[in-house]
Amino acid sequence: MNFLEERIVKDGIVKEGNVLKVDSFLNHQMDIGLFDQMGAEFRRRFAEKEITKILTIEASGIGIACVVAQHFHVPVVFAKKSKSINIEGEMYIAEVESFTHKCKNQVIVSKKFLLPEDKVLIIDDFLANGCALQGLISIVQEAGASIEGIGIAIEKGFQPGGRTIRNLGFHLESLAIVESMDAETGTVRFAES
Amino acid sequence: MNFLEERIVKDGIVKEGNVLKVDSFLNHQMDIGLFDQMGAEFRRRFAEKEITKILTIEASGIGIACVVAQHFHVPVVFAKKSKSINIEGEMYIAEVESFTHKCKNQVIVSKKFLLPEDKVLIIDDFLANGCALQGLISIVQEAGASIEGIGIAIEKGFQPGGRTIRNLGFHLESLAIVESMDAETGTVRFAES
To answer: What is the pLDDT of residues A150-188, one digit of tens each?
Structure first.
């Protein structure tokens, strides 16, 4: 097990309905030292890639992306989930479905901050059905920028998002791939790395 | 002028209605090197304070808070703006009004992540009317934790939030206090530090 898998075993809580709660260190309370380790690991896994920008999505992707960005020395852009009166000018917009909130959201990035010459690393905390990620991918493609890689903290390997994204040929790296969970025993099994 | 004021003059855009757009470096695209400078400056301004936790609010506070936290070596908790089915158990809830979105939000923090013994530094990107900040303050007070300081990137000094918070006796440090803006000339005037 790597450092993130160990942390999930130690502090993650398995709930009925394939819910993995990691809110004590990942997406409500955030362990910044852990995020820094994740940044070093993503830098290692994408060592050969030249990255000019990190793209993530609000809210829980932002913290990870900002700490990871320190290992790549690039700015972070976060996609917003609803139209704000403070965003104006031209925007890239994608429709995404949220598994957690059971609703559809518009995901928005200002065109000023994604240019055709950008080499983008997409970072997010969770990958399950892949809806949010597909929205981010479509936005980068609409901008004419290249997707150099996708870095995910926790992938639910038993849901189709990761397979779909890999089948599309993207370089996807998930630090922990959960193969199965058992709410009764509270155990998590990871895919072999 | 300090480093943040200089950056606002260089890259901020003044719009009608006292809107200051800083989305190229602060709250849509994020300059992580700048956030790191902000972290060092907050550490200096709160040098005498023992901090155990940083509290912020989604979404644009999260990036700053996470990079600032590296200078304090503490976890970050971000308050969520709407009820998620993934938050359960007991929660602290405050009502806040959003100036930007012209609506009321519930701001929520899980009780697990704010304890009476916590010494909290609140971090956010903007302070104008102070509604969001008052919500965070009420949550910390409900938890019985102490507020050791409040660090803001940009305060709109011509709006009442900062004065109210200082009058209440809180140690509030804003890295840039905008005294006035002129949309016609595009100029920003800062309060003397």
So the answer is: 999 999 999 999 999 999 999 999 999 999 999 999 999
User: CA B15 → CA B9, B24, B28, B183, distances in Å?
Assistant: 13, 15, 17, 5
Q: Are B92 and B108 in contact, with CB atoms under 8 Å apart? A: yes
Distance from CA of A60 to the nearest CA of B (A): 8
CB distance B80–A59 less than 8 Å? yes
Cα separation, A36 vs A48, in Å, equals 20
Q: What percent of chain B has pLDDT over 90?
A: 88
- CA angle, B43 then B44 then B47, to 5°: 75
Partners of residue B34 in chain A, C-beta under 8 Å: none
3-class SS at A26?
coil
pLDDT of res. A95: 84
- ipTM for the complex shown: 0.94
- Which of B32, B100, B101 is facing A70, going by the closest CB pair? B32
> Do A86 and B23 make contact, defined as CB atoms within 8 angstroms?
yes
Instruction: Enter the tokens of residue B40.
Output: 């060092």
pTM: 0.95
| Both structure tokens of B130 | 């102070």
CA angle B50, B53, B55 (to 5 degrees): 125
Residue of B21, B37, B86 to mutate, testing the A interface (most A Cβ within 10 Å of its Cβ): B86
Q: How many CA atoms lie less than 13 Å away from B69 in the CB half-sphere? A: 32
Tokens at A142, concatenated:
């609409």
* CB of A23 less than 8 A from some CB of B: yes
Task: Rounding to the nearest 10 degrees, give the CA dihedral for residues A25, A29, A33, A36.
Answer: 90
For A114, which residue in chain B has the nearest alpha carbon?
Answer: B29
Q: Is residue B99 over pLDDT 70?
A: no
